[in-house]
Structures are given as C-alpha cells and as structure tokens.
Amino acid sequence: NRLDLGLIVEVWNKGLIWDTMVGTSWIPLKNIRQSDEEGSGEWIFLDAEVLMKADEIYGTKNPTPHRLLLDTRFE
C-alpha cells in the first residue's frame, strides 16, 4: 500500500570461496506498471552504493559500468 517505497535489485557474482556484489539498483514502486503481459523491458544501470535514511532505502549512487535489462510489473 506504500508506493513511496521501492524495489532493490542486487546482482552478485558467485565465487568459489566468496561472492562479490556486481551492483545494485533501486526502482520506486510508482515506476512499476501493472500488467498481465510481458513488456520489452528497460535497461538500468547498476550502482555501487545504497542510500539509506531512517533505516529505509531511498536510492543508489556511484554507477558501475554494468547494465541490466529488467521487465518489472505488478500482476
């Protein structure tokens, strides 16, 4: 019910001994469409850091060279 929140996407590289974070992105819930069908997706840049305020994530910063194709939707 709180559209002021968002979805955090994390991409990790699975290693033999430990995992490494490739990047993260924050998508505001108000930017996610409602649909029963797949869309064409959207390329997003992954960032290196998460921004927090009062124990809630509100964004990301410091872009990495990595991008990710995401198709996000509510059904």
Structure description:
InterPro entries: C2_domain_sf, Unc-13. One of its GO terms (molecular function) is calmodulin binding. There is one protein chain. This protein has one domain: Sandwich (Immunoglobulin-like). A hairpin with a 6-residue loop joins strand 1 and strand 2 (20-28). The model has no long low-confidence stretch (mean pLDDT 90). The radius of gyration is 14 Å and the shape is globular. The protein has strands at 6-13, 20-28, 33-34, 42-53, 56-70, 73-74. It is built from no helices and six strands. The strands form three sheets. The chain has a two-stranded antiparallel ribbon. The protein has a two-stranded parallel ribbon with strand order 3-6. Strands 4-5 form a two-stranded antiparallel sheet. It has 75 residues and is mainly β.
Secondary structure category: mainly beta
Oligomer: single chain
Mean pLDDT: 90
Architecture, according to CATH? Sandwich
Distance between the termini: 15 Å
InterPro entries: C2_domain_sf, Unc-13
GO molecular function: calmodulin binding; diacylglycerol binding; syntaxin-1 binding
GO cellular component, one term: neuromuscular junction
Feature tags:
Unc-13, 75 residues, diacylglycerol binding, syntaxin-1 binding, calmodulin binding, single chain, two-stranded antiparallel ribbon, globular, C2_domain_sf, mainly beta, two-stranded parallel sheet, Immunoglobulin-like
